[in-house]
Amino acid sequence: MLGHRFGFVALTLAGLLLAGPAAAAPEVVTLGSGPAGDPVAACGDMASSPWEAGREGGLTDEQVFIDGAIAACEAALEAEPQSAQAQAWLARAYFLAGRRDEAAALLETASAGGNPFAAYLLSEILGRQFGGGAAQDPDRAVSLLFAAADGGFAPALADLAARYETGNGLDADLFEAERLYGLAAEQDYGPAVYKLGYFAHAGFTAAADYARAAELYERAAALGEPLGNNGLGQLYEYGQGVTQDYARAVEYYTLAADAGEKMSQTALAYFYEQGLGVAQDYSRSFELLTAASGQDWGFAHAALAIHYLFGQGTAVDEGKAFDLAWRARGLGVVYAQGIIGYLYQNGLGTGRDLPQARFHYEEGANGGDQYSADQLPLVDAELACEDAAGSPHEPGSGGRGLPFEAIIPDDAIPLCENAVAANPQPVGNRVWLGRALARAERFDEAVPLLEEGVVAGNVLAHVVLGDLLMAGAGVDEDPERAIGLYRAVAQTFGPAQLSLGLAYANGIGVPQDREEALRWLRRADEMGVEEAVPELTALLGEGEGEADSVDLTGFGRAGPAY
Q1: Domain that holds residue 90
Q2: Count of structural domains within the chain
Q3: What are residue 27's DSSP bridge partners?
Q4: Per the domain annotation, does 47 fall within a domain?
């Protein structure tokens, strides 16, 4: 309630210097009351809530003209320093202006004087997290909320009901929540009327009653609560108590979405995405999801991630898809785990990481997401291939995989063929298959897969193919191209650093250079490539003129890349 700062423009309360003798004092003009008006009443006209007992009118946060309210309420408090109403209203204006400490001090006094609105506002301040920090005093916030509710303040009754509904700071009690929503609804508080409809719709405290839900949703909508239209849209979407009618659902969702209601924007986006009750329109769907995501609605983040992932109504942006899916996950959207798993599984918007993919699929499956459950056996097939034919030095491998000479082709090849069949999208699966085929000396099958990997930027493919080119194994010997492949990935990939070190040590494809050889071998060692250690030892143990004694047995066949 307190989070908005600007609204409609009301008449200003600034003091006016009138023409006249120099000694004349400025006259304070109060809204609608004239020079002799009641300053506290004028303050209330500018900053009171619509739900305060004994007052007509009142303003939402969006409607408060902050500067005018501060001017009016400071004048009111100067005229009547003990007025709890003036204290509460000025505090509200201060808070909306960002002057939280001044607001809290006034609210302490006003709430101690029994003002329910002040108790509610102070509860909001003490119970809210500002700037990502912890709430200042959540226990006292609940106590103040009880005080405000006891004073009959409708928003407090509804907020207290919401705590009972969700178990937020109180033991969950749906019956007590419904009772409190009912008290607030007696004051025609739209959000509480909607909640009563929601309870009837969901059957929380009794059997679901769709007719009563529809009646309460209609009443809430008539009171200006957009969620009332959202509830009606759901009834027509699912055919609950009415004949299923997507076009009618769209009408109600549109009414709520046009009022900025995030759940309705998200639901309506789905209808445009799927072409239900309207012509399919990805651009409109994207627009609606962007608006709902801007309100930090988790389901909108997740759906928007899919739009960015597949270019629906926008350009493909896998990085944005990844970020949005993580935001949705942080807000408890279970199916976002499946999106994150998919992105890790295929290396989209992030590095490929099958263990991470499996973790998120498992989390999603445990939360009831069927897509995540369906993906688990597929990613397990890919992990089996990685274990049998991957390199422990690949990004995202977590040390999985084997040295080339440890690969057992009869095991690795069928496992990797199965992985490619399970998920043909990532080139990494085909590179692992190519590595296993190279170990079996089936070079005619291996080389095309490795070439494909090089084109896609796969680091392992660069080094495996480079080693084959160095040795002329299954391809024409081409040290110059091999060196180019190593260099393309050597800044971050240890096996490429090892291969370059060996090339410089022996002058193959590059001039022999002991210092360059040592530099690259040391970098490979720092990257955890164990094969670099004996080569370093050998090179350091030889004289300046004997660097060519480094063992290159099997280079390109059972050598560093494998």
Answers
A1: 1-113
A2: 1
A3: 16
A4: yes
